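agent> Task received from the user: take the single chain below, predict its 3D structure, and emit structure tokens. No templates, no multimer pairing.
agent> Plan: (1) validate residues, (2) run structure prediction, (3) serialize to tokens, (4) report one or two observations.
agent> Step 1 OK, no nonstandard residues flagged.
tool_call: predict_structure(input=
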Amino acid sequence: MNKLETALKDIKADCLLNHADAQKQWDVFCEQYVTLFEKVRLNKPDSDTTHHLLGILTKAHIEAQTLIQHHQESLGKMEQVFKDTLGEEHASRFENQSQKQLIFVTHLWLYIQGYLYMDFSLANDHAEQTAKILSPMSAQQPEALRSEFLGSFYQGIDNSPIEKTTHPILGWLKSLFKS
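)
tool_result: status=success, residues=179
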């Protein structure tokens, strides 16, 4: 197990590994970004590991999304050729690894955002944008994809050791209504 994988497991991000395909994408991600992670840790040893993870996942998400956007038209044409040549049943056996990686990285990226208690509206915007990009290539509606992505954001919140603080006045008001 490399240091990137260890850091991800330390924040319980492995809870996203709920099926075999996720494990494959996890392995690809960790292999691809371990060198960058170690380099960042050496360059900024005083920064929190979760912030390093956030930076790397932001980079990974941008790269995966850009790859899909730049090749979306050719991917669609290739998929159509498979369907026309092999038929619907056999064409469905071919998997778009770029799409799968973007889906996985988005889940992981939103997880870390939730784990760090980052702004929900920003996470929601990113989830929606990614869902709109992926929807034409999948059988799912953008809203369903967005909801799935946000599930990872909430898992991050659930696994976070950070205690959500409330404004003292809000706490005082709540205490008045409890009695």
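agent> Step 4: summary for the user.
The chain has one domain: 3-178.
agent> Done.
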